[in-house]
Amino acid sequence: METLIGLLVAAPLLGAAVLLCGGRRLDRTGHWIGTALAAASFVLGAVLFADMLGREAEDRTLSQHVFSWIPVGGFQADVAFRLDQLSMTFVLLITGVGTLIHVYSIGYMEHDERRRRFFGYLNLFLAAMLLLVLADNYLLLYAGWEGVGLASYLLIGFWQHKPSAATAAKKAFIVNRVGDIGLSIAIMIMFTTFGTFAFSPVLESVGETSEGTATAIGLMLLLAACGKSAQVPLQSWLGDAMEGPTPVSALIHAATMVTAGVYLIVRSGAIFDAAPAAQTAVVTVGAVTLLFGAIVGCAKDDIKKALAGSTMSQIGYMVLAAGLGPIGYAFAIMHLVTHGFFKAGLFLGAGSVMHGMNDEVDMRRYGGLRKYMPITFATFGLGYLAIIGFPGLSGFFSKDKIIEAAFAKGGTEGWILGGAALLGAAITAFYMTRVMLMTFFGEERWRNAPTPSPKEPSVEPAAETRGEYEVPHPHESPRSMTIPMIVLAFGSVFAGGLFSWGEAFVHWLEPVVPFEHGHPPVSALTVTSATVVALLIGVGAAWLQYGRKPVPAVAPRGSLLTRAARRDLLQDDFNHVVLVKPGEYLTRGLVYLDHKVVDGAVNGTAAAVGGLSGRSRRIQNGYARSYAVSMFGGAAILVAATLLMRAV
Amino acid sequence: MNPVNYLYLAALLFTIGASGVLLRRNAIVVFMSVELMLNAANLALVAFSRLHGNLDGQIIAFFTMVVAAAEVVVGLAIIVTIFRSRHSASVDDASLMKL
């Protein structure tokens, strides 16, 4: 069984290698190879899962030592895998949702001539993410981490002929780099403190080190998680990452990439348990991000960007839960899995809508689409109900648990976190209802040509300027696209209930992820009712604004907050002023210094030597007699000097 | 006769030779002046040899003669070649070796 673990990673990696090196002869079959290898990885995962279920809870952890990667004296880096309940959960999510997205992409990318390459990148993405969750030590995890960063760069910038996509890919890569620095520093601290970076020794002995060291490691890991999971302050790449093809967004937001940060925090739980300051930082980041993302999601008219805001917000919930310690770890992972289902479903639904609407992304150009795309409407609707936490659906169970755990943190902190989480739930209901109403209900706003927007055209560059307006013919997508959506809709509906049945999910994770029951200051029923009330308020507010009144086809100017949220709450302006400008000044200063001082010294020396030789070359005039004069003169001086020395 | 007088003579000859090298333009005359300087040096060497009572100076004078003979062969060859190509034996005309 152990040997199968390596194959989990190897299958998609092989797919990536074959597809990317295979050349044009694979253009016709490439997508099938990619999908088959992703599916093979899923089947392997399922086999391992069945095998794992057959064993006792205590010895379900499998490990496989493949080879010594870098053995240098005391520095021992191994390629070793570890498959326990936590990695198993991720493996199934990554390969399962990943395979569905592969299937969907067959239809979605049908007319793209670089489809083979696209599938190669998708496989690379899966392989890197599997390496990340299966690694047995932080260094190998780091390798997977970087692989994910590379694959996301390639996929976000897949339509690189668009400058915006190329820029977005670069932005994602650079922002991720900032986080990666955190991870590498954390690994360095681990090595100097513990002499190793394998999971078990580090996590077992972290209690014996000083709290300061644990806090340092924890904060660095948090920085890493912020980068990959798009948490404040490293969140700015996520919205721009929508430039990639829609299946990529689904993959990034549901199965891979953004979940990596949550995985890292939960996996390193012991470190955070030993460092309360780092934990506080984690919950703060989570709470801020969940509100930040939710507010941004409310203002976006681009359907994918609204969903991106929602991802940021939902990951914020997970990070919040992961920062709560043993009362929250399991729920963070549970929400991650249910979110994987409904967010993948929502993104694939959004892709399906765009597919039928000439790639229009502006929701103000949608409206009344439910008649034309019933399957998309149904699956998107179920995903919608799940994400807002409609009682009985997946999101309800996982999100409600997180809110309860936030209250159970205790003290003022608990009330603040719980309140933020509740507020987030209300805003989530608001913006998701808004998306739903603007897309599938109301007038059919796409029938009329878009009127040029009078104000701030730079804010929402949604509709590209076209010469003639072509009225779209909304239609249902092909079966390769609808079937994955249907499967994901099933997950969105039932996963949460299944996981919560007798706390099955918590008990499944318990041997690896410590769990204890939180005790909220108010009864669980009260929290649940409050969640439902928040949900109803959100839905009601959205209906008042977007359901009862017709939606203007051109975005109104909006309040100050709306305008700020349309600009992602000024995140880019902030980065521009705080980071980019000083950076530019610094580089300009350095260039000036380089020109004036460094180059000045070098050029000055050269000019001095040049001038001197220009003057001294005049001595050499070609007249033999003048050379003879200097020889005689020299000889005379020598004789005179000798005589003088003798006299003295 | 006092051998020191030979030294005066040598110095005089050397000076005449040096002036010739520096002041004359004709390559043949310059060449002859060089010979004059060499012979002045020889005379000085022989005079010193006599003054100090050992033969080293005289031996070196023989060496000088051999070198001078060789130099004449090479030098005259060069001068003849230059004269053939430039139709002039002026040393100042052959001033191409400059920047």
UniProtKB/TrEMBL annotation, chain A:
Q: Where are the transmembrane segments?
A: 31-50, 87-106, 118-135, 141-160, 181-203, 209-227, 248-266, 278-299, 306-324, 330-351, 372-394, 414-437, 483-502, 522-544, 627-645
Residue stretches making up the NADH:quinone oxidoreductase/Mrp antiporter transmembrane domain: 135-417
Q: Tell me where it mainly resides.
A: membrane
Query: Which part of the chain is the NADH-Ubiquinone oxidoreductase (complex I) chain 5 N-terminal domain?
Result: 69-119
Q: Where does the record say this protein resides?
A: Endomembrane system; Membrane
Entry keywords, A to Z: Membrane, Transmembrane, Transmembrane helix
This protein's membrane topology, according to the annotation, is: Multi-pass membrane protein
Instruction: Identify the stretch(es) annotated as Disordered.
Output: 448-476
User: What are its GO cellular component terms?
Assistant: endomembrane system; membrane
Q: Do you know which NCBIfam families this protein is assigned to?
A: NDH_I_L, PRK06590.1
The identity of this protein, by name, is: NADH-quinone oxidoreductase subunit L
**What species was this sequence derived from?**
Streptomyces radiopugnans
UniProtKB/TrEMBL annotation, chain B:
The answer on whether this UniProt entry bears the keyword Metal-binding reads no
Q: Which residues cross the membrane?
A: 6-23, 28-48, 60-83
Its membrane topology, per UniProt? Multi-pass membrane protein
Q: Which InterPro entries match?
A: NADH_UbQ_OxRdtase_chain4L/K (IPR001133), NUOK/Mnh_C1-like (IPR039428)
Q: Is this entry keyworded Iron-sulfur?
A: no
- Which Pfam families does the UniProt record give? Oxidored_q2
**Which GO terms of the molecular function aspect are on file?**
NADH dehydrogenase (quinone) (non-electrogenic) activity; quinone binding
Name the EC number(s). Answer: 7.1.1.-
CC per GO annotation: NADH dehydrogenase complex; plasma membrane
Q: What reaction does this enzyme carry out catalytically?
A: a quinone + NADH + 5 H(+)(in) = a quinol + NAD(+) + 4 H(+)(out)
Q: Which keywords does this Swiss-Prot/TrEMBL entry list?
A: Cell membrane, Membrane, NAD, Quinone, Translocase, Transmembrane, Transmembrane helix, Transport
Q: Where in the cell is it found?
A: Cell membrane; Membrane
GO terms under biological process: ATP synthesis coupled electron transport
NCBIfam families linked:
PRK05715.1-2, PRK05715.1-5
Complex and partners: NDH-1 is composed of 14 different subunits. Subunits NuoA, H, J, K, L, M, N constitute the membrane sector of the complex.
Instruction: Write out the similarity annotation.
Output: Belongs to the complex I subunit 4L family.
Q: What does this gene product do? A: NDH-1 shuttles electrons from NADH, via FMN and iron-sulfur (Fe-S) centers, to quinones in the respiratory chain. The immediate electron acceptor for the enzyme in this species is believed to be a menaquinone. Couples the redox reaction to proton translocation (for every two electrons transferred, four hydrogen ions are translocated across the cytoplasmic membrane), and thus conserves the redox energy in a proton gradient.
Can you name this protein?
A: NADH-quinone oxidoreductase subunit K
Origin species, per record, is Streptomyces radiopugnans
Print the organism lineage. Bacteria, Bacillati, Actinomycetota, Actinomycetes, Kitasatosporales
Q: Which gene encodes it?
A: nuoK
